[in-house]
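Notebook, student rotation project (T.W.).
Task set for the rotation: take a protein with a known small-molecule partner, predict the structure of the complex, and write up what can be learned from the model alone. Partner molecule chosen: nicotinamide-adenine-dinucleotide. Sequence and SMILES entered below by T.W., checked by me.
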Amino acid sequence: MREPLRVAIAGLGRMGAVHALHLHELARDTQTCRLAALADIDPDRIRRFNAEIGQQIPGFASLEDLATAGACDAIVIVTPTDNHREHAARMIGSGHRVFLEKPLTGTLEGDQAFAAELERDHPHALMLAFQRRFDEPLRYAKQLMEAGAIGRIFKIYSALEDSNPAPNGYKSGGILPDMSVHNVDEILWLSGRTPSKALTIGARIYSHALTTCAEDFDDALLYLWFESDLVAQIQVSRNHVSGYRVETVIYGEEGQIHVGHFQQTPFEVVVEAYGRRGSKAPLAHRKFSMRDYGRPLPEFVDRFGAAYKAELAAFIECCRTGAPFPVTHRDGVRAQEVIAAGMRATI
Ligand SMILES: NC(=O)c1ccc[n+]([C@@H]2O[C@H](COP(=O)([O-])OP(=O)(O)OC[C@H]3O[C@@H](n4cnc5c(N)ncnc54)[C@H](O)[C@@H]3O)[C@@H](O)[C@H]2O)c1
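Predicted structure of the complex:
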């Protein structure tokens, strides 16, 4: 395809406005795509974004209007999770390729039904947004692990803690389906394996009282067993009031790989591999600078800004070349199946 891909964005909220900015930058800097249309039920959000970039991208009040107008070839859907299935199905049904924010639908039953429909009618139409797979620090850790730097892996710990509750009005299907889906996908991707058993523990400790977002827990642990030779521990919460905390530790027989540690100014992520106790120097040490957007943005953008942009660039490249998407509805269902198994065994 020689013409720039015409890409629309639906939903210009916390996450959608960031995808829209990245799309605008990719259009300007690579000419592989064009930001062709914006859709949001709130016309102010469309006006604000157009004012920010100093352009007049055509706006639509619904995805129905956008699809009918034939204004784009592909679309980035960042509407609330409750709308994901309806919006993605509408756009795929009219021949668009879709980049859908996580989670696929927010429930296991919804994921399984939607994935079965896609498998039958449109197996290659949807890319699911799991930005961690495009994150340079995590990709480097995976490389170290696969090169054998720390020997056989027997445990992975992955933490994700917000400093605030989910915003008023945010629709969450529960802290595990909404938030730990990132960590679960990370662990399935790092290990290349599927767990055989799962257990969750959760509590409402603090931040749930500060929001109208109804969520089961504001603090939870998910423990996964992969046969008898690997375990994973996932910790998620909305209570780390000092700031966003994202940490992964991979345990091997010959050492550990640490990805990130909490910093109040989160623009530097260090990946370090340590040998066994007594080793003189780390086996590996690399610093990754995160992008400073120069203005306050949601905390997840401070840590994953470059990864969000890289996943979007990968989506555009696949649409242009016809290559299969690297992350799909199948990955979304797999992660949600693991979480649902854990939630069936909740303490
Ligand atoms: N990958 C990540 O790290 C990450 C981070 C945050 C949110 N998300 C996901 O992004 C999605 C949106 O979350 P958010 O926090 O940006 O929500 P948000 O409420 O801030 O934004 C949603 C936007 O969609 C618009 N909208 C609502 N209903 C619509 C409709 N029917 N048609 C068109 N527009 C509509 C709203 O006006 C708003 O602008 C969720 O699915 C969430 O799970 C992902």
